[in-house]
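Structure (tokenized):
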């Protein structure tokens, strides 16, 4: 199975830092944010990786190369002149994903999630990894009940930015720039989205404060 790392955003919450360097190349310990996720993917058998890039894209491409130094293959889906958001970015990369079921992971998270354990049941359009609500998203996103993603108001969890998707979820979409949530909401209403809870390490490295907290905890 192929994987796509979402790395096209501008990282504006990092302020001055991301005017000179794209967020995926910010260091957490000895390695960049995106490298931590490359290592995780390789650990669990994902050796064929697509990365969507836009903002300061050439810096990411030059830094990571073709993936050979990590023992994997990397191909790039370039979005110009502006990023296409999460949904549009994946849709734009579909030819590189060869229209097969694929894994998605955000480049700005740090986690020990066992990626090889994520399963997409037959007839489902997506399977999402959910985590406890962080301070910046205390109301959560969706509920998880009997391995199904629901809209219940109680016991809400946060979508981790990790999931497996069936390319069918992108069928009949005419837009080029849109968020992934635009596809997930109707799929959840149809009862075609499963999920699992990750109770291990998961951090969203969205700004300088979160980066410093991660460094204190693990590096």
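Design, position by position:
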């Amino acid at each position: 199975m192929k994987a796509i790392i979402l790395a096209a955003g501008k990282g504006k919450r990092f302020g001055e830092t991301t005017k000179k360097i794209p967020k995926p190349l910010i260091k957490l310990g000895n390695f960049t944010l995106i490298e931590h996720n490359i290592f995780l993917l390789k650990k669990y058998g994902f050796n064929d990786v697509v990365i969507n890039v836009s903002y300061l894209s050439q810096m990411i491409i030059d830094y990571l190369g073709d993936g050979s130094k990590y023992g994997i293959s990397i191909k790039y889906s370039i979005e110009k002149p502006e990023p296409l958001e999460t949904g549009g970015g994946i849709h734009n990369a579909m030819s590189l994903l060869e229209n097969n079921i694929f894994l998605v992971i955000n480049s700005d998270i740090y986690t020990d999630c066992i990626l090889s354990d994520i399963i997409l049941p037959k007839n489902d359009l997506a399977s999402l990894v959910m985590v406890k609500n962080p301070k910046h998203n205390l109301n959560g996103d969706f509920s998880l009940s009997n391995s199904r993603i629901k809209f219940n108001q109680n016991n809400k969890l946060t979508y981790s930015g990790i999931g497996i998707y069936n390319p069918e979820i992108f069928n009949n979409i005419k837009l080029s720039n849109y968020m992934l949530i635009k596809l997930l909401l109707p799929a959840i209403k149809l009862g075609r989205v499963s999920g699992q809870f990750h109770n291990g390490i998961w951090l969203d490295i969205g700004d300088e404060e979160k980066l410093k907290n991660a460094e204190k905890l693990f590096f």
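Reviewer-requested clarification: The chain has one domain: 2-218. The mean pLDDT is 97.
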